[in-house]
Write a structure and sequence with these properties.
By secondary structure, the chain is mainly beta. It contains 4 helices and 13 strands. 14% of the residues lie in helices and 42% in strands.
Length: 177
């Protein structure tokens, strides 16, 4: 069954997607969310943030939080490699536009995916939360997971995670002898 994903009920989502890798898995986001792609050059850490918040960067005078997608998907903090990149994305979180960075292992390319080629995610087998998946498409002979960025980059949820983060000093004191 094909799932024609729509935005605001009638207008089809963009057919252009930016594809990228996390480990060996291919993911994609709608190109209209992508502002730019930058080479990973480090982040400034923010105390008491969850593992998925890698830190912040200065992007032309603006402080931009960077989310480690590997950690966000529950796979642990990503290792930095030669092709590690930050995708600067803009989402509407209901309270206005938010600019966030997504740290990924490698950026691939912009591809065309027709809405008719997008399938609903199966109820099993995905190694990320089902609500993070907008659909699955076959692209260049391989499956690519289309992400629902508003859910993946939900600032409200990340703030809630940070409230439950255990400070490093407290965690080490609980470790015992």
């Amino acid at each position: 069954m094909n799932l024609a994903i729509t935005k605001h009920g009638a207008e089809p989502l963009p057919t252009q997607y930016l594809t990228f890798l996390l480990g060996e898995e291919r993911f994609a986001v709608g190109i209209l969310h992508v502002k730019e792609i930058i080479e990973y050059a480090g982040t400034a850490t923010v105390p008491m943030m969850p593992d998925c918040v890698r830190g912040v960067i200065n992007l032309r005078g603006a402080v931009v939080p960077v989310i480690d997608l590997s950690a966000r998907f529950g796979r642990g903090v990503a290792a930095i490699g030669k092709r590690t990149s930050i995708i600067i994305a803009e989402i509407d979180d209901g309270e206005g536009k938010q600019v966030l960075g997504m740290m990924v292992d490698a950026v691939n390319a912009v591809v065309e995916i027709e809405p008719a080629d997008i399938e609903a995610a199966p109820p099993f087998g995905a190694r990320i939360r089902a609500d993070f998946i907008a659909g699955i498409a076959k692209c260049q002979g391989r499956f690519v997971i289309l992400l629902a960025l508003e859910r993946v980059l939900s600032t409200g949820e990340v703030v809630e995670l940070s409230r439950h983060a255990v400070p490093l000093a407290t965690a080490s004191s609980r470790a015992g002898p």
